[in-house]
Amino acid sequence: MYNIKKIRNDFPALNQEVYQKPLVYFDNGATTQKPQIVIDTIKKLYSNQNSNVHRGVHYLSEQMTEKYELARKKAQKYLNARSEQEIIFTKGVTDSINLVSFSFGEKFISEGDEIIISRMEHHSNIVPWQIICQRKKAKLKIIPFNNKGELLIEEYEELINKKTKLVAIVHTSNSLGTINPVKKITKLAHKKNIPVLIDGAQAIQHERVDVQEIDCDFYAFSGHKTYGPNGIGVLYGKKKWLEKMPPYQSGGDMIEQVKFKKTTYNVLPHKFEAGTPNYIGAIGLGVALDYLENIGLDNIMNHERKLLNYGTERLAELKELKLYGTAEKKTCIFSFLLNNIHPYDLGVFLDKMGIAVRTGHHCTQPLWDYYKVEGSVRASLAFYNTFEEIDSLYQSLIKIQKIFK
Amino acid sequence: MNDINKIQKEIIEEFKNFSNQLDKYDYLIKLGKKANSINPKYKKEENTIKDCQVETWFYADLKNGKIFYYIDSKSLLTKGIISLLLRVLSGQKPEDIQNSNLYFIEKIGLKNNFSFLRANSLGKLVDRMKLETKKHGK
Lengths: 405, 138
Prior knowledge:
Chain A is an alpha/beta fold.
């Protein structure tokens, strides 16, 4: 049985009041709350186990190195990567994509080449590609989507040609909740030997991701959106690409030998981890991944699907509410506008009623240009949210409607 | 007490009537609805106040030695707050605007509740309002 009460008790941030009202935390797309076990781990590590990793000869350093590398193994297992050498710790998805755009771009993108992204990308999967395209005089090609927020796969197929060097695509849209057919997208690109990068920021915490099954070449996710600490993320990359790519940042730890004549680089994954890594963040992330495995991703998916169905039905009762993102396959994200109330105003009122949502363009301006609106109110749910909280959102929206009439 | 401080005092007194934040917001919505919109021809790039969340426009005019401000926003809450600002500063002499100390926002207990205020967008707007007084020869 899914014990929601017990799960909620694992997250101290959920059990609080804001403005004398119980907090309803619906801003999980921006960041998730942390289970007590992650908070305790970080506290314990800083309290009496802190020491820099690798190269240390002393006890604490050895212990911390072991824990850090164990976290890598946990991430490898979680993604079902072939080897831990394919797991690079980064600061998060933005950092992971910047790593690939710089490093892959440096080696494999030339003048006249093309990179395919979609119109529903987060700015972090647009701007790094714009920059490399400017630098290399390459072109960005955009996959459109339909009114429901589903990518037009036939148009994607038409965009692929011999000039295409990479496809970079979001797994789950942070603004609409659409779950994209990443396996199919990858397969189509691979037919022409084109590698695929997937931005998994909004997918990894909601469903089982198997990078071998998808067969993608790169997969990125962030720790803080996955119930782990801030400032840590993962880039999965197939060894065959990572080995050919030049280092992204340089300095300590990423070298094999430094000579003024010639410096040689460390093996994977360390070649891409210059400087002291965020080892405590990585260990915290490993604990968060363990926590998710203990709850069970099937259980999480099952509960979130029920929340999605219930929330969709409830919000449909509000005739003046326009829901954006109605794809057949979507995650538990409700992006909406109510009457002609500005999303900012709606968000401020919801906040005062104890409901935390996000308002604005959610870093996907080209997506909102399609719908010809500035942005939306986004309620993004997690496995610790409840049906009663959805009722609370519904009731609050009715109250706000009255205020604005 | 100059006019600017007198109006600020009036607003602070008015807000003492509200027992909770939601009542204050309700009032701001009413103010926002009542506030005049600006002519669409002024809604251009150089008149836009840069803010991540809300599009807001601004321009100023000098009449009979006094500065008149015209501001519009897509958000009624923002428009409500701005209408308070206009009540305090619009129609005042440039030197009074330059020397003004706007303390009423903090006193009415809204400063920490709006990203528009927290992110210093209001501060930027006030700076711009003061800058306009220089453009008009003072």
